[in-house]
From TrEMBL, chain A:
Membership in a protein family: Belongs to the 3-oxoacid CoA-transferase subunit A family.
InterPro entries membership: 3-oxoacid_CoA-transf_A, CoA_trans_fam_I, CoA_transf_BS, NagB/RpiA_transferase-like
Name of the protein described by the UniProt record: CoA transferase subunit A
Gene3D superfamilies: Glutaconate Coenzyme A-transferase (3.40.1080.10)
Superkingdom field: Bacteria
SUPFAM superfamilies: NagB/RpiA/CoA transferase-like
UniProtKB/TrEMBL annotation, chain B:
GO molecular function: transferase activity
Protein name: CoA transferase subunit B
Keywords for the protein's UniProt record, in alphabetical order: Transferase
Native source species: Vreelandella malpeensis
Domain of life of the source: Bacteria
Family: Belongs to the 3-oxoacid CoA-transferase subunit B family.
Length: 232, 219
């Protein structure tokens, strides 16, 4: 890593500096667009007591489910945590604290965190258990609750293509939370399918400009499908 | 006879208008996509970041990077757009979606909805439901009118933790189509062969019954 060349040559180098107790923001929706190898490296390192911010938490044996298996996560912010039996057990046993967060609020928390906005008002969750204890303000006759932004020590992101400057494009709906997480990590690590030469990607088609990105690595991906649905 | 799930989807589909952007929830709402009337073009919004959801893929089209909010593999139709989760919820929260259809455990006569949590049972999370009900002007809730034990799910006041407050204005159950207005359910239509008496009996909240309540018709 030197100057604008953000490429690193190993996953070990990609996650250098991660420690117990840190907050990790992860891209992905279900198993689509998850940084599967970066998760694998966190598992390999065995760091513990992590706070994970991710829409979902993987499935048994894949994605963030791997970190749950090794009891590396003590708190998770997520909008939906079904499809994971081990996770359910850890939640019931109170081994893990779950902060259920409406999906749009979770996305906006990351977006705001990356944009230097400490908090925002939203109608989502007003009058529900999610709004309890939060500041309420009325604008134009409607009630809104104050939600605080989220930032992370690390953001782990899965992209499609990147150049060495850290400019990233995502593919199809594997975009999801990835560009948001990318903006809100103190150290943002992006793993991609292909590193291309600068200029190969049209600058106006870049989803995540390199200014947000600290490390880039090219990897191989399983891309497991959660619900394979085809028409005959 | 109570409506089947397919008939419920068919009835909801009649509320679609040409040019509508529509978000369909999991379950019966998803089936609505099978009954879009001829001559009507709608764009289906999937909250994971897809506007213009197409059909399920063929084996050849199958792509792990193309899924819907139910995590099923899908395709994008011509005219579709793909974007981030923040953009997706900007369109939802900003009131740009013309119609939202979603399921519920309970609704009440004040338009409150409970759909995400049953205390004492496992909690899986609200996903995008709280954002959808807070952001949409036009929501149809699909649900069974009463539980298997005959307990009404159309209440004076929701008992379960809320998904949203005062946000539901239309409900389609297996027995009836109702509007919610000024603190009451207004009975607009009844399922074929279902009597007003039965609907009254199975509605715990305040119910207003007009002089004439037409029966739904299905081909």
């Amino acid at each position: 890593m030197a100057g604008f060349d953000k490429r690193v040559s190993s996953y070990e180098e990609a996650m250098e500096g991660i420690e117990d107790g840190m907050t990790v923001l992860a891209g992905g929706f279900g198993l689509c667009g998850i940084p599967e190898n970066l998760i694998g490296e966190i598992k390999r390192r065995g760091v513990k007591d992590l706070t994970v911010v991710s829409n979902n938490c993987g499935v048994d044996g894949f994605g963030l489910g791997l970190l749950l298996e090794k009891r590396q996560v003590s708190r998770i912010y997520a909008s939906y945590v079904g499809e994971n039996a081990l996770f359910e057990q850890q939640m019931l046993d109170e081994e893990i604290e779950v902060v259920l967060t409406p999906q749009g609020t979770l996305a906006e928390k990351m977006r705001a965190g990356g944009a230097g906005i400490p908090a925002f008002y939203t109608a989502t969750g007003y009058g529900t258990p999610i709004g309890e204890g939060k500041e309420v303000r009325e604008f134009n006759g409607r009630h809104y609750i104050l939600e605080e932004a989220i930032t992370g020590d690390f953001a782990i992101v899965k992209g499609w293509k990147a150049d060495r400057y850290g400019n990233v494009m995502y593919r199809h709906t594997a975009q999801n939370f990835n560009p948001l997480a990318a903006t809100a990590g103190r150290i943002t690590v992006v793993e991609v399918e292909e590193i291309v030469e600068p200029g190969e990607m049209d600058p106006s088609q870049i989803h995540t400009p390199g200014i947000y990105v600290d490390r880039i690595i090219q990897g191989d991906f399983e891309k497991r499908i959660e619900k394979r649905t085809v028409r005959s | 006879m109570a409506l089947t799930r397919e008939q419920m989807a068919q009835r909801v589909a009649r509320e679609l208008e040409d040019g509508f952007y529509v978000n369909l929830g999991i379950g019966i709402p998803t089936l609505v996509a099978n009954y879009i009337p001829d001559g009507i073009d709608v764009m289906l919004q999937s909250e994971n970041g897809l506007l213009g959801m197409g059909r399920f893929p063929t084996e050849e089209e199958l792509d792990p990077d193309m899924i819907n909010a139910g995590k099923q593999t899908v395709t994008a139709r011509p005219g579709a757009a793909i974007f981030s989760s923040a953009e997706s919820f900007a369109m939802i929260r900003g009131g740009h979606v013309d119609l939202t259809v979603l399921g519920a455990f309970e609704v009440d006569q004040h338009g409150n909805i409970a759909s995400w949590m049953i205390p004492g049972k496992l909690i899986k999370g609200m996903g995008g439901a709280m954002d959808l009900v807070a952001g949409a002007e036009n929501i149809i809730c699909t649900m069974t009118h009463a539980s298997k034990h005959g307990e009404s799910k159309l209440l004076e006041k929701c008992e379960l933790p809320l998904t949203g407050a005062g946000c539901i204005n239309r409900v389609l159950t297996d027995l009836a189509y109702l509007e919610i207005k000024d603190g009451a359910f207004i009975l607009k239509e009844r399922a074929p062969g279902v009597s007003v008496e039965e609907i009254k009996e199975k509605t715990a909240g305040k119910l207003i019954v007009p002089d004439h309540v037409p029966e739904m018709r299905f081909d």
